[in-house]
Structures are given as C-alpha cells and as structure tokens.
Amino acid sequence: MTREEYCAKIDEAIDQIAFEGTFIDYERYGNGHINDTFVTHHRLEDGSVIRYILQRVNHDTFKQPEQLMENVAGITEFMKRKIVQNKGDVNRETMNIISTWEGKTFYKDSIGSYWRAYVFIEDTTCFDMVEKPDDFYQSAIAFGHFQKLLADYPAETLYETIPDFHNTPVRFEKLKNVVQEDVLGRVKEVTDEITFVMEREEFTHILLELHMEGKLPLKVTHNDTKLNNIMIDNATGAAICVIDLDTIMPGFSVNDFGDSIRFGASTGAEDEPDLSKVNLDLALYELYTKGFLEGCNGSLTATEIDMLPVGAKMMTLECGIRFLTDYLQGDIYFRIHREKQNLDRARTQFKLVSDMEKNWETMHEIVNKYR
Ligand code: ADP
Ligand code: GN1
Ligand code: MG
Fold first, then answer.
1. Of all atoms in ligand 2, which is nearest to the CA of residue 228?
2. What does the pLDDT look like over 98-153, one tens digit per residue?
C-alpha cells in the first residue's frame, strides 16, 4: 500500500468513529512494536482541542481482531464497575473505547484493516525506561493490582488472542526451525546466541511442568507488562492506567512479573547495542518485587511467589528467543527502525539472562524478604 493509500484509510476510519468535535489532524504516536498508533486532534464547540488514540490493529499478529475487541470491551467494562465501586475516575483509570457511529467497538475498512479508538489519557506519561525508581515501583503496584482486580473475571469467556503466546518451549522449537531454514543466511552471525539458547532448553519447561502437576494456577494476566504499557499520572506520580490490553489471556502471574523485570530492571534500553551498559539492576528488581507483591495483596500462592525469579528469567529468555527468531526471519514481526535492531534486542535479553543466573540466589532472597 502506498503512503497515500494508507492515509486514505486513516481518513476513512476517522470518519466512521464517533469522535467529539471537528477533526483537525493526526500524527503517529508512541513506541509500540506491534500496532500502528496515531493521536488525533479535534476542535470542540468551545474552541478547545480534544485528543484521541487511534490504532490500526496489527492483523498479522492478531488473527481475530473481532475476538480481541470482545476481550478488550469485556475487560474494560468489568474494570469500570470496580473503579466506580472504589470511587475512582473511569475516564483515566481504564481504557475507554470510542465506538463507531454504528455502535461497534472497531471499524473494519474497505481493505480489511481493523481500526479502533480510545479516550486519550491526558496529564500522564508513559516511559520507555525507568527515569525515577518510584515510577517503576508505582507500575509494580499497578500491575499487581490489575491482576488482583481481574481475579474474579470469567476467564472462560476470554479468547486466546495469540495462541501459545507465552509458551516458551513452543518459542524455543520455532527458533530451532528457523535456524534450520536460515532463509537469509544470518545464522552464521549468531552462533553464540543460538548456543546460549540451546543450553537452556530444560529451563524453558519449568513453569508448564509445574502447571501440569497442578502446582501453578492459570490466572487472567496481561502478558505484556512493560513499563511503556502503563500511564503514570503527572500530578500524583501514581501509575493510574494499564494500557495495551490486546494480550489479556489466561496465563501465569509470574510471567507478568517477569516481563516487567526484563524491560524495566535493566540498566540499558531494550535495543542497546553496547552490552556493557546492560545489566540487571538489583535495586530496581527489589523495588518491583516489593510493589508487585503489595499490588497482588495476598492473591498469589506460595508456589507463585517462589517462582517469581523463574518468571523473570523465563520472560527475558523467551523475549530474546522471539527477537532472535525475528532477526533470522527478516524482521517480519517486531517493528524496526534500523538494521540489526532485533539482533541488538535479542542480545540485551541474553545479557540480562546471564546476569540473572549470576544473581540467582539474591533474586530469591529478595522475594523472600517481601513475601
Ligand atoms: P502497541 O501494542 O503497539 O505497543 P499500545 O497500545 O501500547 O500499542 O500503544 C502505543 C503507545 O501509545 C503507548 O505506549 C502509549 O504511549 C500510547 N497510548 C496508547 N493508549 C493510550 C491512551 N489511551 N492515552 C494516551 N496514550 C496512549
Ligand atoms: C511487543 O506491543 P508492544 O510493543 O507493547 C510484544 C511483546 C514483547 C514486546 C517487546 C503482541 O509489545 O510481547 O514483549 O514487544 N507484543 C506482542 O518489547 O507481541
Ligand atoms: Mg504497547
């Protein structure tokens, strides 16, 4: 599709969604790797300007966008009832879908792309790296609390928006296949990274085996708990809203913990090319552990708490595997802005895994301090 054709589709979507006011303009927004996100501006009758988030759902990643939107609508309505009970602000503490003029939660355009819009959560910031430790701590409380809030959500009504999303052994097998195929001849550059993953095959099974033995429960989980999927209130510093609800599915609580650690408790950016800058920050790990356990507020079993460090290492290894797989396949899944970005992303994850292994005892001691 040319740029002009794509812009025409954005215009088409904007016409179909029941925004308030008169449309002014839009621009690309945010740093997500998956969906196409835009901010739109509209003038209200009193002359003020209102913003919305408009997204084209990535249809290659999410094969059933209609089911996905049913999940999001169900979850946000459920959250709204709880927020009202707690006397909170429903416009800022959860995502609010702006429906189409026809009353649907999304608009399917003439070439089959799915568009949806949300209320823009104003006066908040979304961070790509921890700038103030307290933000990370607040995000931990919010992600823990989010899981507790959804503890009585009817999990059987949720669609699995990406099958086997955090099935690490499946991700491992996929990497093995992609290495075999080596479609772009890139395998020779990354033999150390491949060996690193292969040496950890046994580890990839730990959580699923515990689950199969009946020792680790399935919960309703977010599954993409990185720091830039949470909005921090500029005035109070509290993490007020969990966003990016596309991957809410039944999963393991420890993976929600782990995904936050791999992204936020690193001293470097996810795609930092200089690995000497990438280390596990144990102080941030401790802060997150404390906040997450506070947010979960007694809802985790002893085994779930025991497995928090495993969740951290699992999500970091799995994400590294996914980045490496995508690099070998020609960067077809995660959006890149420069060459080798997915390889750099994979390498930071493996560096963090090594760091976790070196600090394995300490990671457990920290969990035990706050349980
Ligand atoms: P992706 O799945 O591609 O990561 P997200 O849903 O996380 O997409 O959105 C991308 C970015 O857009 C977020 O990191 C955040 O900066 C911004 N964003 C998303 N929803 C909102 C919202 N309701 N209000 C303000 N900013 C938002
Ligand atoms: C993607 O959509 P975004 O940017 O929040 C990915 C996550 C990865 C993350 C790595 C649906 O998250 O699983 O952990 O990139 N989301 C999907 O940064 O695959
Ligand atoms: Mg996101």
1. 5
2. 999 999 999 999 999 999 999 999 999 999 999 999 999 999 999 999 999 999 99
DSSP 242-290: E--GGG-EEE-HHHHHHHHHHHHSBSS-TT-S-GGG--B-HHHHHHHHH
Sign of CA dihedral 200, 202, 208, 211: negative
Ligand 1 touching residue 32 (CB < 6 A) = yes
120 lines ligand 1 (CB under 6 A): yes
Helix (H, G, I), strand (E, B) or coil at 127: coil
pTM score, two decimals?
A: 0.96
For the domain covering 133-370, report its CATH number. Answer: 3.90.1200.10
Alpha helices by DSSP H, the chain: 3-16, 65-85, 133-149, 168-181, 191-198, 206-212, 253-264, 282-296, 302-306, 308-329, 341-358, 360-370
- Would you kindly state where each structural domain of the chain is located, as residue ranges? 3-122, 133-370
Cross-strand bridge partners of residue 249: 221
Ligand 2 centroid distance, CA of 2 (Å): 26
Q: Is the CB of 121 under 6 A from ligand 1?
A: yes
Neighbours of ion ligand 3 (CB under 5 A): 32, 229, 244
What 3-state class would DSSP assign to 29? coil
CATH architecture of 3-122: 2-Layer Sandwich (3.30)
Q: Which of 143, 170, 224 to mutate to test the pocket of ligand 2 (most atoms within 8 A of CB)?
A: 224
